[in-house]
Specification:
The protein is of the alpha/beta class and 427 residues long. It has nine helices and 22 strands. The chain is globular and about 70 Å long. This is MSMEG_0569 family flavin-dependent oxidoreductase.
């Protein structure tokens, strides 16, 4: 039989590892570091290249919203000249790539996982772009933001108007000339609106219900105060609302130019047009909005003020000498709420949808998901033996979705993985 025909008649070669980690971003790499220290055989499978989301999935002027001193991974920490600053996109990419290189993380790139199933002989079978694998245990480190979402009525936009999701936004110059409508004010939407505004573009912004936080208060970054207060360490089950916190939108703020508040009211004074939540789009190209603008602005301010109240209380209890600071006073209020916008008449050339993502775990064939497709777990440990998640928002605490607590989450899972491996050997 010819050598060329033989592979079609023989079973594919299956490569085995004790542990396979799906995803080579900072969360997967943190788990890998712990497994490497314990001498546990493992492999990271990455559909693209290591840490590529930091380079390919952010806009040109992106910066972290958490200070550089919080960028701490197991055995590795930011050691640059600006610990209180905020790394830009490419700096974060180099930081995470440098982490992978620092311990020789065993990453197989361009090996996107197509299916993970329970193996009849135990463990898990994985089908990937790089072939077939088997692992005793699997860690899913693909994050929680997989598929960009847009409202169904987006299909009614006139063909002459460019539309893209925030995940595809790169810069003001990359959009056609004209006014831009940004829909949504989570972290991405608010920062993209600011990016366009600072570039001198005419911006129309549909404001959602995202909260905000002050960048600095009483002489320090609010993140520093909250860190000292242990706010990022409170388990989700001890938070008001419990696991419902996982559905919360992040507070908007920016690390740009050394860090500052994002004040949508100030933007309005400077010419940005604000609306309530976008509710629909008429066939003639008229966008519709509800009358939630003032309520949303007030609610965002109330959250920021509540955080300041908590900081004040901590300062008082701890007897800290910190400068006093006047509270924020709204600089603008809508005289009336506009509920319609003729996109053509307003010269809108582009719409940026910043309304979130949905999960997509169709490749993971395990009964560990709720009715909305979110994984069910306790600190990343699922009911399917040897299957774990890491790097999800609120996996265990508020810090879980950021650099701040990935080290802790990764260590916890590595301990569970090591214990399971030991039990298997003993059996």
């Amino acid at each position: 039989m010819s050598e060329q025909l033989a592979p079609t008649l023989c079973p594919p070669r299956v490569r085995h590892h004790d542990v396979i980690v799906v995803g080579a971003g900072q969360a997967g790499l943190a788990v890998s570091w712990h497994l490497t220290r314990r001498g546990i055989d493992h492999l990271l499978l990455e559909r693209d290249t290591t840490a590529h989301e930091w380079r390919d999935g952010r806009w040109d002027n992106f910066t972290l919203v958490t200070p550089n001193w919080q960028c701490v991974l197991p055995g590795y920490a930011y050691d640059g000249p600006d610990p209180d600053g905020f790394m830009a996109r490419d700096e974060v990419y180099r930081f995470v790539r440098g982490y992978a290189d620092s311990f020789g993380a065993p990453v197989l790139e361009h090996a996107g996982v197509r299916a993970v199933t329970r193996a009849p002989r135990g463990g898990y079978d994985l089908e990937t772009a790089a072939g077939s694998f088997h692992a005793n245990q699997v860690v899913v480190a693909t994050g929680g933001y997989h598929v960009p979402t847009v409202p169904r009525f987006a299909e009614r936009l006139p063909a002459s108007i460019t539309q893209l999701h925030s995940a595809g936004y790169r810069s003001p110059a990359a959009l056609p000339a004209g006014a831009v409508l940004v829909v949504g004010t989570g972290q991405s939407g608010a920062q993209i609106a600011e990016d366009l505004h600072l570039a001198g573009r005419e911006v129309h912004l549909a404001v959602g219900n995202a909260p905000r936080v002050a960048r600095f208060y009483r002489g320090r970054d609010c993140v520093a105060w909250l860190h000292d207060m242990g706010h990022y360490d409170v388990p989700i089950e001890d938070q008001p609302g419990g696991i419902g916190k996982r559905e919360n939108t992040n507070h908007y703020v920016t690390g740009r130019d050394g860090g500052r508040d994002i004040d949508l009211r100030r933007f309005a004074l400077e010419g940005m047009a604000l609306y309530g939540r976008m509710t629909g789009l008429d066939p003639d190209g008229t966008a519709r909005f509800d009358t939630s603008l003032e309520r949303s602005l007030d609610a965002a301010d109330a959250v920021a003020d509540g955080i300041k109240n908590a900081i004040d209380g901590y300062i008082a209890r701890a007897g800290i000498d910190a400068p006093m600071e006047p509270r924020y006073t709204p600089v603008w209020r809508p005289e009336h709420e506009r509920t319609a916008l003729d996109l053509r008449a307003a010269g809108i050339s582009a719409v940026v949808w910043s309304v979130g993502f949905r999960t997509d775990y169709r490749w993971l064939r395990a009964g560990v998901f709720d009715g909305e497709g979110h994984p069910c777990h306790n600190r990343g440990v699922t009911t399917s033996p040897g299957l774990y998640f890491v790097g999800l928002p609120w996996l265990h605490t508020w810090g879980s979705g950021r650099f701040a607590a990935i080290a802790r989450d990764a260590e916890y899972l590595a301990e569970r993985i090591a214990a399971a491996a030991t039990a298997t050997v003993a059996a």
